[in-house]
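Lab meeting notes turned into a lecture example. A postdoc, R.K., suggested we walk through two folding results consecutively so the class can see how the record format repeats. The first protein's sequence and structure tokens come next.
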Amino acid sequence: MSHSIRKVAHPALMIISILLIASNLRAPITGLGPILEFISHDLHLSPTQAGMLTTLPLLAFALFSPISSGLARKIGLESSLMIALTVISLGIIIRSSGSIATLFLGTCIIGIGIAIGNVLLPSLLKRDFPTQVPTLTAIYVLVMGIGSTISSSTAIPLLNLAEKLHITAIPSWAFSLASVIIFPVVSILMWLPQLSTHTRPSVDTADIDSHSYLWRSAAAWQVTIFLGLNSFIMYIFISWLPSILVDNGYTENQAGYIHGILQLSTAMPALILIPLMAKIKDKRTMSVIIAILSFSSILGLLLMPEHAIVWVICIGFSCGGGFILGLSFVGIRTHDAHQAAALSGMAQCMGYLLAASGPLIFGSLHEMTASWSLPLLMTTSVCVVWALLALYAGRPQIIIRTQTGNDIIIDNTHPRHQS
């Protein structure tokens, strides 16, 4: 494969298409949280079963992320991303059928489609816009936040609309879930012109599987768990925040809007932190502050729920900031693009497996105690571990390996050379 920069015929159209695809990478999941109580009541789901609805996509992310680059190598990036959008659409249709079986099956299928998009979109940016990756990444994260905000904020109004229109073919909550199909449908229409080309992913993505030594690296695991704990906390609140708010006296509409604010606040750090990345060499202090902010905000939500909107903004900001910092650690701790892509793949696979346990554990604790106190205190304890891990994950050292012949015999770190 040539390493020359590929000339994009219509760069503005390509950027719009990329951002539309990005809008699909969270919205189909986040629209579930505000109406989870309605679904649980209608289908008689336990809190643990309800938590599984958020856990399933995360498991799909973990299991299907490693094979996404192989799919792109075989059929091309453009076709692979079209498959991702089609799978998301199919999952939304199945999930909205109204039964327990289709609810869980569709949710899992949506996760598979999102997993493919998660892995391949960054490669598309590197391939077609190599000099604009930081800027486009910031916009990309922002669009993901906007898409998830729209999905969360409109979930309850759409449910109410279905009841006013007396839609009986499917439950009102299913109508609300079905409405997010607008995201992949518009994206598919915009992406169709790209199918005329058949190109492979960037060499960074294509070589993800060639760095198996990272799985024996303590430094790689530090970065992986840092990102995993960040997602662990984030997906707990994506799943359970509306239920917490309703039990503290908020209406379903208010809970839905605040849930939308959570999504939007996760995108805010993209506009604030990315310009600071090049100026602040050692990211550890910033990372610890982010974890402390999350700790204090969750504690605030527990002790002073009347100020939930403040705490939710801070939780969203800390999780969004932790995600960006975690991605920066991938660059800081690696010596070339191939190793960075490999570490990113490892972190995404194992990090999402860790994150998948969050909503399930949180829901189980709530079910056992009939209270939100113990689950929230558990989450604050995770923030403490997250802060301590930041001191190791964010060190300005790179992961190296020593080889004898073709055999890898050591995997260690050394300080990055200062420029």
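The second example is placed directly after the first for contrast:
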Amino acid sequence: MPRLVVVSNRVADPRKTAAGGLAVALAEFLNNTGGIWFGWSGKVVETAAGGDTALHTQQAGPVKLVTMDLNREDHDAYYLGYSNGVLWPVCHYRLDLADFETSHIEGYRRVNQLFARKLAPLLQPDDIVWVHDYHLIPLGSELRALGCQQRIGFFLHVPLPPPPIFAAIPGHDWLMKGLCSYDLVGLQSEEDHEHFCSYITREAHAQPLGEGLWRVFNRTLRAGSFPIGIDVEEFAALTAAPEAREMHERMKREYSLRKLLVGVDRLDYSKGLPHRMRAFRELLKRYPDTHRSATLIQIASPSREDVSAYTDILHELESLCGSINGNYGELDWMPVRYMHRTVARAKLPGLYRASQVALVTPLRDGMNLVAKEFIVAQDPDDPGVLVLSRFAGAAEQLREALMVNPYDAEGTAEAIHIALQMPREERKERHAALLATCKRCDVHWWCDTFLQSLAKAQAQETGTPWLRL
């Protein structure tokens, strides 16, 4: 069986549950093939830009974890400057927050070249290479330049914006040509897939060959949508574990007279947290029956707080929460419980299960797995209701959720009120359909489907038999 080589910005130990569903899913293939997981160590060292750094190797069962350090200049240009200062905001449709500093793209290229130089000698001829996310878009072309002929697939975890927005990036054509060096490009949603196809058609004059195949830049590639899921069995087990049960019982006890709403997000401008608070304020304003009844627990985990855009959101969010509590709160009831810290993953299922409504209302999101975790954590006999942004990738799959436009405070408030009042039978019907989708399209399905499609794409290009994994 060919070996799987996973490449991502950061590396996770697949033996540890805390690493999350992605690591668990990839572990199945990595363990079977004795594969490699390659990426940045997370350490910043004092060496010259683009200079040689030693590789760190750790054996995790049959899986080899291989990492490398970055120096300060490379880290700041590749990670802070270009990945998070240009690609992240543009991919989330926020051109106004992008910093198109020319030196950043040079650092981004330099680090991807460094990744390629370090990875190429580790590869075997029949390896399957799976590259992940926006940090490493040009890695495939850099590996090709070094003569690597292995099957190489790429998956973009964030949204791909429409061509007019993507084309605002200086060097956008170079980025897209880098994407087209892969045998398979995987996107989260059909909308993202349409954006990719539209771009290569308009800008690169790609020719469709049918069944997801394209001829572009003198090579054939396959593109498609592969919506990522969660490990349903693992999260269900986590829900039944002592920490989650204790959290659930404590929440039910402490909020026995309230209806709980929950939001769990990183503090990021893509999550629409100020918009959510305005919608909740509108709920309290328009529906007096929610007073002394509805309580929103909002967890906003710290994220890149050294960037001014995040500091602005933090201050705005704190101001809105304080204003809502000041205007509507009572001595024995605060409408918003806001926490600017990370809550242990083992406790989250209990919080989800105790909540009548989950607010997953990003302004733009690749997928948003909180929505799927909330569904899996529910009691099927008395489930909560998912209020979901139409701009989350998950909206394409989770059609039985209550869909909202997060920019519309009144419309979102109305949907939240409907969720709070929804009869049990309707909640059970919606939940059953949503849970079936989560189970059918879980993270293992995602992983298997992508790798089978990668094998198919490479077979089309070379005429070799399909690989069966």
